[in-house]
Amino acid sequence: MQSFETSQRIVVTGGAGFIGKHFISYLLDQKHEVINIDKLTYASDKKSYASFYDYSNYGFIHEDITSLETLPECDLLINFAAESHVDNSIRSSRHFMTTNALGVQNLLELTRGFEQSLRPRFIQISTDEVYGDNIEGPHTEESLLRPSNLYAASKAAADHIVQSYARTYGIDYQILRLNNNYGVRQYPEKLIPRSIARLLENRKAQIHGDGSALRCWLHVKDAVQAIVTVVLQGNANEIYNISGNDELNVNDVVSKIAARMDLNVEDCVEYVNDRPGQDTRYDVDDSKMRKLNWAPEISFDDGLDEIVKKTIETPHW
Predict the structure, then answer these.
(1) Per the residue annotation, which of 26, 49, 131, 151 is the catalytic one?
(2) Among 128, 159, 246, 286, which one carries the catalytic annotation?
């Protein structure tokens, strides 16, 4: 397993969110000094981030990235902070633009305020959704961005802002565009935890449209190792697609969940109206990552086994 230099100080924004908390947990176990900046939204995992205080190498700043006025000195600034639930972006796009785009701009402005020799490298955690539908085959890092929903548009805007600051002000960056993440203790607005929660309550799992939308699934632990790989081995001022090995449509995912709960999927699913702007498929070319000798290690079936088991054991968020 790879590791950063122990002398580095790492600032993580959005570290109480799903991917961020797993990343911080990894860093703390590796004895790195970590400062977590998070405004603690409804989706924050308060149980997980509370356990971070057991580490002497952990610090916390309760702040919104859009209004943050001071950035601690650090070697790396890794931004996970984002509003990410697509349904919410459809109902309230302004909030998404403010956090996901202007929040990133504020972090970059604070980074620019340091002397050149003291500026941290800026790591932006992005999404494959910025590319939009797969129309002409797998998207490479050079593909045109065609976001289909407001969440994806806000993340695409952030990516462009990062690149603009790099060119204008000389800030070093790396952008990682990840597939759909899944894993233990994900907030139950996402497909997998929400479906499990509804089925545990003897309610039907809900599927948008006809359930044929295809997604590649990336376990959060594999995502953490991908981020570490890019930071340690990737080139400055480049974008990296991060893809899981398992491509499944929504029907397949819910069927696998039902089977693990000894339920007949036909009896426990209801179909609801499709999302406006729904993409039929996301598929990215991650050959740049594979050249860094990274590949996902956790299969979807193994990852789902753990999620269902642990959710049944501890069903309440």
Answers:
(1) 151
(2) 128
Do the Cβ atoms of 10 and 123 come closer than 8 Å? no
User: Order of strands, edge to edge, in the sheet holding 33-38?
Assistant: 58-62, 33-38, 9-13, 76-79, 121-127, 173-178, 238-242
Q: Does an H or E element contain 178, and which?
A: strand 173-178
The CATH number of the domain holding residue 234 is 3.40.50.720
Closest CA to 135 of 19, 245, 283: 283
Q: What angle, rounded to 10 degrees, do the helices at 300-313 and 250-260 form?
A: 50
Tally of structural domains, the chain: 1
129 tagged catalytic = yes
- Rounding to the nearest 10 degrees, give the CA dihedral for residues 166, 168, 169, 171: 0
Per-residue pLDDT tens digits for 169-194: 999 999 999 999 999 999 998 999 99
pTM as predicted:
0.95
123 has a pLDDT exceeding 60: yes
**d(C-alpha 258, C-alpha 262), whole Å:** 6
Q: Could you tell me if 116 and 171 are in contact, meaning their C-beta atoms sit under 8 angstroms apart? A: no
Owning domain of residue 146: 9-182+218-243+282-296
Question: Considering 38, 45, 75, 129, which one is annotated as catalytic?
Answer: 129
Q: What tens digit of pLDDT does each residue of 184-221 get?
A: 999 998 999 999 999 999 999 999 999 999 999 999 99
Please, how many CA atoms are within 13 Å of residue 32, restricted to the half-sphere of its CB? Answer: 24
Q: Report pLDDT digits (tens) over 134-164.
A: 877 899 999 999 999 899 999 999 999 999 9
